[in-house]
């Protein structure tokens, strides 16, 4: 007979496992040969992002775009366009730090722009603490004094 295997899971995974085991034994199968169900939760890391133009800082998870993080500041007037890298409204320049980027429209971000750290905030996620400057259409809205 195979030894029983016990693991610690979240309550939801443990409930699913117990239900699967019950169905397994009710079907007349050996108790030691039950299906294992594993639930994983990705680890999220948060990084500090500094908007150099205003001195504002915010925390941004590595699973969120810089634009989503800026929106979480709660400031009015942060321009949001397509959120898909096609409109160019959310252009920023990364001046320090590491990031991952997704596909952006070459109409709005050239290869030279990318090489200089000019990217679309909707298509970039932090991989370390970052500093950025707001450029293009976004500059007027973000850099105006609060009302």
Automatic annotation (TrEMBL):
It holds the Pfam family Fer2. It comes from Ideonella livida. Residues 45-138 form the 2Fe-2S ferredoxin-type domain. PROSITE patterns: 2FE2S_FER_1, 2FE2S_FER_2. This is 2Fe-2S iron-sulfur cluster binding domain-containing protein. One of its GO terms (molecular function) is 2 iron, 2 sulfur cluster binding. Transmembrane segments: none annotated. It comes from the Bacteria. InterPro entries: 2Fe-2S_ferredoxin-like_sf, 2Fe-2S_ferredoxin-type, 2Fe2S_fd_BS, Beta-grasp_dom_sf.
